[in-house]
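Usage

Read records sequentially. Each one opens with the input sequence:
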Amino acid sequence: MTTERRTTRSSNKDEALRLLLASVKERSQVSSIAVIDATGLVISGMGSVRELAILGALAEPVASGEVSELCERLTRGTDVMSKAVPSSLGTIYLAALGTRVGRMHEAARGVERILARVA
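and closes with the structure output:
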């Protein structure tokens, strides 16, 4: 027997991403979370404009394991997490600022499923 955890969903890609990010942010200890494309553009995000811009700049290098001096300076006092997600749009990133993302791998699979509906 499978239990469905989601209580709200949408067939609209933008709304589905927003609902997913809101759910992840609620169960996590993060101040910002976003889905970001390979150019650093925030596709969908929750948090301050400043923090979303930081995530846009750092998502790809952090997911690749590159932590530069700029990254250290921009994220002083918090942690940055980023996971590459394959999609029909190319590689995108699920990234967050904070101390813990609850079930990040599941959230990344959710982003992948949502974006697969676009193709």
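Summary fields computed downstream for this record:
- The two ends are 30 Å apart (CA to CA).
- The longest helix spans residues 13-27.
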